[in-house]
Write a structure and sequence with these properties.
The radius of gyration is 22 Å and the shape is elongated. The chain folds into 2 domains: about 210 residues, Glycogen Phosphorylase B (Rossmann fold), CATH 3.40.50.2000; about 170 residues, Glycogen Phosphorylase B (Rossmann fold), CATH 3.40.50.2000. Strand 2, helix 2 and strand 3 form a beta-alpha-beta unit. By secondary structure, the chain is of the alpha/beta class. It is about 40% helix and about 15% strand. It starts with a strand and ends with a helix. Helix 3 packs across helix 4 and helix 12 packs across helix 15. An 8-stranded mixed sheet has the order 1-4-3-2-7-8-9-10, with helices on both faces. Strands 13-12-11-14-15-16 form a 6-stranded parallel sheet, with helices on both faces. Strands 5-6 form a two-stranded antiparallel sheet.
Length: about 400
């Protein structure tokens, strides 16, 4: 176990902020929605004067604890996560965490992921009577059907419910998800949304040079998908929808941004499309803003950060009516929302939108306006307030 000198003991006298132990099995620079979200939360909480002890698996052999004011990183052993190249899952560490938190007791333990490390953290917090919260980030029980584990779906769903019901509070990103989980027997759910960086993701990053690389003029329509190229993302509907678009607009282009286990096969099957691979930071933002229409047919999201990133970038979004789409878009005004998992409707909406210049312009403009209301500062403030309340309740 590696860690830098703990801020808990050094800053014990400075009690304006909380001492928070955050346990996660993914963290930047890993690329996924969970890592991005918790990275934002950690930096926001540090800026507000809190002390953070970040417990995570070592990402690679050269990984070392990073140093920042108020931040302590504790790196534990991990093993590769099947189907997710580059990600590692933590190992059971209950005794290690109990020793760590007996030496420097946090005000609250926040568990981000539901793997063995996350379960160990909840158990250790319970043993030591430390308040504990959790995040519901990923529909792992829905993913199981796409990885040949459909028979295990009830087992995984039961595990997730037991896991989160051991916490004093579970944070969910949308009201729709809270309602659904409450119907499944989850308790103590609190909605804390997710934000979007509207300075990074902006229409001002649109690049004619990048569009030219894609083979598109300024007048051509460019549709895009951003995310993992993986079975759970329903990518067949991206290609089917674009075929409907291309029948009406032969010059249209499709750009896919991201990587994953399906990438080699998809590139062989669809050589006519642009596979841009993994992009980060301003490069990613330019790829978003240089497109026109965003296709997101996934049916396994808890939120879908890419939806709000596309909105902030000024794209017209076609998605299903759930998760971030339902939370932030108004059908026909700032995006188009198909009834959940109705593929024919999704394809029709995408094809009709592609040839309706007036509607496309309106949706792009209004999507940007809607994104401007989704502030990370407000999200972090709500998260901080909720953690403080939980910590005080258990004193």
């Amino acid at each position: 176990m590696n860690h830098t000198p703990g801020p808990f003991s050094e800053l014990a006298g400075a009690r304006e902020g909380l001492r928070i132990a955050i346990v996660t099995e993914t963290y930047p620079p890993e690329i996924n929605g969970v890592a991005m979200t918790i990275g934002r939360m950690v930096h926001g909480m540090l800026r507000r004067g809190n002390q953070i002890q970040l417990v995570r698996p070592r990402q690679h052999t050269g990984d070392a604890p990073r140093s920042a004011a108020g931040l302590e990183e504790v790196l534990l052993r991990g093993v590769p996560l099947p189907g997710y190249d580059g990600l590692r899952i933590g190992l059971p560490s209950r005794r290690v965490l109990k020793r760590l938190w007996k030496a420097e007791r946090p005000d609250i333990v926040h568990v981000v992921t539901e793997g063995p490390l996350g379960k160990s953290a909840l158990c250790a917090a319970r043993d030591l009577r430390i308040p504990a919260s959790s995040d519901f980030h990923t529909n792992f029980h829905s993913y199981s059907e796409h990885y040949g584990l459909g028979l295990l779906k009830p087992v995984i769903a039961g595990y997730l419910k037991r896991f989160h019901n051991r916490a004093d509070c579970t944070f969910v990103p949308t009201r729709e998800l809270r309602t659904r989980l409450e119907g499944d027997g989850y308790r103590n759910l609190l909605v804390v949304a997710r934000g979007v960086d509207t300075t990074l993701f902006s229409p001002t990053r649109r690049s004619g040079q990048l569009r030219a690389i894609w083979g598109a003029s300024q007048a051509d329509l460019v549709a895009t998908y951003v995310g993992r190229l993986a079975p759970e993302k329903n990518l067949s509907l991206v290609f089917a929808s674009f075929e409907q678009i291309r029948r009406r607009l032969p010059s249209a282009r499709l750009v896919l941004i991201g990587d994953g286990p399906l990438s080699p096969d998809l590139q062989r099957r669809y050589p006519e499309h642009v596979f841009a691979g993994t992009r980060r930071g301003e490069d990613l933002a330019a790829h978003y803003a240089s497109a026109d229409l965003f296709l997101f047919p996934s049916v396994t999201e808890t939120y879908g950060n890419v939806t709000v990133e596309a909105m902030a970038s000024g794209l017209a979004v076609v998605a299903y009516d759930y998760a971030a789409g339902r939370e932030h878009l108004v059908h026909g005004e700032s995006g188009l929302l198909a009834p959940f998992d109705e593929a024919p409707t999704f394809m029709r909406l995408a094809a009709d939108l592609a040839v309706d210049d007036a509607l496309l312009t309106k949706l792009r403009r209004n999507a940007r306006f809607a994104a401007l209301r989704i502030s990370w500062d407000q999200v972090v403030d709500e998260f901080a307030l909720a953690l403080r309340g939980l910590a005080r309740e258990k004193v």
